[in-house]
Amino acid sequence: MTHVARTKILLIENDPTAADSIRAALPPTADGLFDVEWVRQLSEGLDRLSKRGIAAVLLALTLPDSQGIESFDKLFAAVPDVPILILGGNVPEALAKEAVSRGAQDYLLPDHLAYSLPRALRNAIERKSVEDALYLERERAIVTLNSIGDAVLSTDIAGHISYLNSVAETMTGWRNEEAVGKPLAEVFRIIDGATGNVARDPMEMAIEQNRTVGLTANCILVRRDGFEAAIEDSAAPIRNRSGQVVGAVIVFHDVTGARARSLQMTHLAQHDTLTDLPNRIVLNEHISHSISLAHRHRANIAVLFLDLDRFKNINDSHGHATGDKLLKSISQRLLSSVRNSDTVCRLGGDEFVVLLSEIAHPNDAASCAEKILGSLKSPHLIEGNDLQVDCSIGISIYPNDGVDTDTLIKNADAAMYSAKEKGENNFQFFEKTMKVAVAHRA
Prior knowledge:
five-stranded parallel sheet; 3 domains
């Protein structure tokens, strides 16, 4: 018999009715996605977490042995590496948001559990996994950089080279014997990476200020053969026994790789690892920026929330590897359906959001939705299989359907569910009655 790995979720909730609602929102499935363990007190939860094996925690802030934000703080301090989702309902939403600002992954409203809880858990676990991977990568980079030998060169008071170590020889392209006696500027050629101008002499700054100084920001070392490398570190004055400055020493190291890794890690933190589309962090920034411009110019923007129809069937029948390739193909078609100024984001799973950064009329959003539906209609050739997948699209318009990022996304999400209810493979604009419908369904 094949044993399916189950994702263990710890529910810390004193109210049995609320606990039943949570477990009902996470029913057993064919692949056994979630296994909910329920405790009623924070102390019991901390004891269970000490035994490990929990993938995420659902936390109520009102408990017999702990109340309010203190409940989250104690839990987060004990297990900062486990994603925590706050259960709203019996506490003000502002308190739940405060917990998110302190490190919780998300908060959930009770009337949305039926359709949002499984998705929220999957997204929280996925985000935490990416964060942990990025942290480990950053730590490895730091250890690697700390183990690299630094280049060292020294000068006399007149600014002539007196010594290069072997690393400095490699980085400057000058052998020590050749460099000794030559002016610093001839051997240690540095420029400002932003302007291309010659950078200020660090030896002069160290001697003039009689202290250790950092090299110019964005400093580029031009090697003897013209090769350029980004460098960092410092210059310090050399004193004799009397305390008089008799020269300077410059210590530096190549940070080209570190800067490239930093840029790569920044990219990873802001993009979906599978499709390389921007993630929610970037989406929120782009929507906020577009709202500011639209407010200034009295224009409109549109947010389209997309959910693929019956994508799980393809995953189950063809495997996750095929499903991943299909998601990549869909991502490319979405990109080709919008303008360069628009943003296509993958929230996770089979959910995407498209930001139309400026529209003249809501009909422009409808046209874009029709274009997307048409682009997805053609089969995707994946590993010899013609796979067809449709999507349901919900649309919200600024400012009529919301004046902030969260509201526009939430309302587009509600409209998407309305589109699904009307037969899938279509789009719906948000209407104020949809909130009531979604709450009633939950």
